[in-house]
Predict the structure.
Amino acid sequence: VGERLVVTADRVVPRHGAPPVEALLVEDGVVREVGTREQFQGHESFRYFEGSVVLPSFIDPHQHAYLVTADPHSDSLLAFDSALADLLAAVRRFIEREPTGDSWLRYHGYRPLHLDILRSPTAAELDSVCPDRPLHLISRTYHESVVNSAGLAALGITPATPDPAGGRIVRDRRGRATGVLLETASFLAEAASRTQMDTSVWVERVMSYGRLLASMGITRIGDGAVPADAADTLSAGLDHVGIDLHPLLVGEQIDQPVLMPGMTAKVLADGGEYCHLCFTGRQMGRVMRNGVRAGLGPDRALATAVGRRTGRPRRGARGTWHTGIRITNDSGLDALMGKASEIGAGLAVHAIGNGAVQSVLDAIDAIPGAAADVPLRVEHAMVLDPDLSGRLADSGAHIVVQPGLLHEFGVELTRSPVPDPLRLIPLRTLTDAGASIALSSDFPATDLNPWRAITDAVLRLDSRGDPVHPEETLTLEEALTAHTTGAAAALGVPGGSLEPGSPADFIVVDKDPYALAPQDLMSITTLATFRAGAQTYSHT
């Protein structure tokens, strides 16, 4: 419970899109009144943040606090993924610092298409720096990883091992595993190689991470993959430093949803980079032509690498064509929707490709009452056409998107453009259709800073500065709303504003975002963060 205080600044924004006020009165952790500075002048506890702006705090409804805090080497490879030689040299240095033994070694954060070889390393290449101990390198998104030969042996992978459902063991032309693991195969290795950390050490890491969140102006998060048996400890550690947690529950592996009454389960409908795309015959023709054109262009090597990842199209029903990996098939989605409706659980369904999104919507339609009974979130929804965007809006599901992916991966995503009328993260189309949108980071897949997602929602530029479907931009007000009240709605809680009766979760920033050019939003610094009226962070 926060103290009774009056907060005032040069500008106080009670809700994005509402007129600014001069001050707000906080009592028992709740905003009681908003108004002018003069009307609250007589209160004992009066804090004036001169030269600053007060905003509702950010809510990040999809990130990965558990994976980051449970892995002491999270993002350790990010600075070394421009060349294979640099990556292997960094891994060698990391290994030299490890205690001796025969347990798994594990490092996270490389981006396969950022390497000069435009692919993941192989087991043979990892063997050159670690020949006799299981080694696991995990890509930044977790959807792809690679193990060395000792890692393959530890996982029991032989030439006769079948691909797991929803995953792939990449093999050479002779059928031998290369060490590269995709989707559920990667998740299996992630669970096997996960560090067995002392609980007290982990909780310290959780609290340190919570303080980092507060420094970014974040007071509430949804965690996109929390083992059910770790949720209470993670929640308590974050709460201790002023962060509210909403866990999306999984089992031992990321791809294993756990349904519990009153809680939300995480479900993977399709892969990440290997998402389920569905094309008409005409669109498939455009894809092929775009691929040929890109293969002759200045980025032909990257375009070829992206094409290899897409894989061979598969002919489906009614003349459609499909690419990518499905993790939970149509009948599986129907069963989960029915179970959630029966026990009163929510679902957060990872569905990146239009094929997966269509299956999620079909599952809603297949279960009578599901739309009303099941609190539903669709995570990512990256590839949509206007019809599918309209169906999403009509479903009432909350759409949790990550515009930061446009900056982080936009160059590779656009080497062979999706065919019309499909668009990447079509924020304007979704908004105009009336969809409930929430912005999030998906950290560590993209930058944790909320201003990154907001900037990318407004500008939609890739890392080279080239626009990605610029007709799909949001206004600044819309983007800020989606990272506050929209994000709160996705989590099923009140909040995201500073209107009377709202939780007193707010931040003090050094610049007014509404007075800045969009390209300058990332320069904003959080000076203070408050949760329920109590200060949890101060910039020094």
Observations:
- The mean pLDDT is 96.
- The first helix runs from residue 65 to 69.
- The CA atoms of residues 57 and 196 lie 34 Å apart.
- The first strand starts at residue 5 and ends at 12.
